[in-house]
Amino acid sequence: MKQQPRRAEVIGGGVGGLTAAAALARQGWSVILHERDPEIRAFGSGIYLWSNGLAVLDRLGVHDQVIDGAHYGQAIETRNNHNTTLASIPVNGAGGVKVLTVLRENLINGLVDACRAYGVKLETGSAAVAVTPEGSVTFESGRTESADLVVVADGINSRLRDGLGLLNRRRSIGQRCARVLIDRAPGLVPDADEANYVEYMSGKRFLLYTPSSATQVYIAFVCPTDDTSAQGPVLPRHQWISSFPHLRPLIEATEGKLRWDEFEQTELRSWSSGKVAILGDAAHAQPPYLGQGGGCAMTNAFGLAHAVSHTHDSLTAGLAQWEATERPLIEHTQRFSCRVARLNNVPNLPRTALMTVLSKSSALGRSRLRAATSVPTGFSA
């Protein structure tokens, strides 16, 4: 008699959940993915894809689809309040690090198509309200399902994670961010900067300029949580122009209603409990200064699917192996990103001196890019 495939219930239709569902189905699992919203969709912004995430997309068969129309910058630059370059990382050239930017919608749609290609059943309007270590999932409708594995990837505010008592620490970084897409047009920034990825720092404010396609630019506005004058449903342009006068055309082009999100770091006592695994922001949220939130979620999800499919002792052993393998690199990335976030609190003059010195350290550069250039676990499987 043919053995029935093991069953997985995945909670959350974001980057981590979709990757986990597709990767598990690729390994032969029967997978149902649950998304509480009426449809699986991306909230508008761009996203950085480095070598690690691109490798996962390649294995899932959607690499070319996701990067269609992507932007390839030549450098990632950090500038001070006088628009002087403090650090520059060459990318996408001979011997350089590979990184590209796409619209988040491209990534989500590609992962949805990967799920469908591998036979994942997608259930929208399906809100899980509780999980148990025994693999039971209870939904808002009152329905209960059981599975061999439950993957919780429902974001930083995960009630399912909290119900299992796994949260060790959830720490605010003390910064908020608004993300927006605008039309790409001549004159937003000087021609020499137009194609690059540029981080601008002034006082405790930070502005990220990211071309994400041939037609759109992703901008992130970051400020301290208590800097209320810089926040609002509509961007207070005069405040940001006062900090970045050389970016007036870019700031004045920013329109639409904004949502300000808090930067946080999460740390769990364990990434699993019984038959339940936690990943993505629910497990390892980090401020996005390294552009590795999506990459870490994808590689961790792919590693999870590999571990539980290729460890023959038990599911518990597979989950333990997964955490032991993946957690050190992800926690290194979290720590590094939090240290970069603290640079926003350093006054302009000493920060310029400090970053000028740090930019010359090749060891620090390798440490910054460790996750981005890593080969995902199970890549050859």
Write the layout of secondary structure elements.
Layout: E1 7-11, H1 15-26, E2 30-35, E3 46-50, H2 51-59, H3 63-66, E4 75-79, E5 85-90, E6 99-103, H4 104-117, E7 121-124, E8 128-131, E9 136-139, E10 144-146, E11 149-152, H5 159-163, E12 167-183, E13 197-202, E14 205-211, E15 216-224, H6 237-243, H7 248-252, E16 260-268, E17 272-273, E18 276-278, H8 281-284, H9 293-310, H10 315-342, H11 348-358, H12 362-368
Parallel strand pairs: 1-2, 1-11, 2-7, 4-13, 11-18
Antiparallel strand pairs: 3-6, 4-5, 8-9, 9-10, 12-15, 12-16, 13-14, 14-15, 17-18
What does this protein look like?
With 381 residues, the protein is an alpha/beta fold. 33% of the residues lie in helices and 27% in strands. It has 12 helices and 18 strands. The chain has helices at residues 15-26, 51-59, 63-66, 104-117, 159-163, 237-243, 248-252, 281-284, 293-310, 315-342, 348-358, 362-368; strands at 7-11, 30-35, 46-50, 75-79, 85-90, 99-103, 121-124, 128-131, 136-139, 144-146, 149-152, 167-183, 197-202, 205-211, 216-224, 260-268, 272-273, 276-278. It has a 7-stranded mixed sheet. β13 (197-202) and β14 form a beta hairpin. The chain is globular and about 65 Å long.
